[in-house]
Amino acid sequence: MNADLSILHLVTQASFAVQLVMLLLLLASVMSWTYIFAKYKEFKQAISVTDDFEEEFWSGKDLSHLYKKLTDGELEPEGIEKIFIAGYKEFSRMHSKNDIDPAVQVESAQRAMRIELARELERLDERLPFLATVGSTSPYVGLFGTVWGIMNSFRMLGNVKQATMAMVAPGIAEALIATAMGLFAAIPAVIAYNRFATRLDRLDGRYELFVDEFVVFLQRQAHKG
């Protein structure tokens, strides 16, 4: 009688340890894809906001009007907008005090922007370590299930006088499914992590460049009195 080697049958008939490995890998894969879709939308929005803000910032409009537009409460500021608001607000507060040195005014605004920049990068980096962990560990978790399944197959062979392929095939097949599931969870996570990490680095560079350019602008404003 031929052994049933369908995927569903192999999974349901696998040993408890192998089933547990498969369940963990399935959960990791589902969570990874959930984070991948969420992060994709998050980075897409951050890039779009940065593009729109930079275009408006360098259009020559009065920055006080831009500040009021971003803080009027109609829309929640995001990304680079928060960095600008933090710097402009702190500079305006310090600049209104006539007894404060211009250099101190600019340094205070720069510090406020650096703090907001760090918060924004931390927000964008959230859950990326999970993708990295899934990508690096899932193949080994699947390999553990594979080794365990093959060990069970050899133990079964030790209890019979004559081994046949029909006896060995189901155990080896269920073991290899664990390896396949490990790769299925790992590959998308690795690709997504690398892509998002690259986007994060690019956004970080754009944020840093904006802070430096805005500091130069504030230095001119501070010395005008």
Molecular shape: rod-shaped
Describe the sheet with the most strands: none
Strand content: under 5%
Number of alpha- plus pi-helical segments = 7
> Radius of gyration, rounded?
28 Å
Structural class: mainly alpha
Low-confidence stretches: none
Average pLDDT rating: 87
**Count of the domains:** 1
Helix content: over 70%
Order of helices and strands: HHHHHHH
Terminus-to-terminus distance: 93 Å
- The total strand number stands at 0
Walk me through what this model shows.
- This protein has 7 helices and no strands.
- With 225 residues, the chain is mostly helical.
- Helix 2 (16-57) runs parallel beside helix 7 and helix 4 (80-95) runs parallel beside helix 7.
Describe the SSE topology:
Elements: H1 7-13, H2 16-57, H3 63-71, H4 80-95, H5 102-125, H6 128-157, H7 165-224
Entry summary:
With 225 residues, the chain is mainly α. Helix content is 84%, strand content 0%.
Tags for this model:
rod-shaped, mainly alpha, single chain, 0% strand, 84% helix, 7 helices
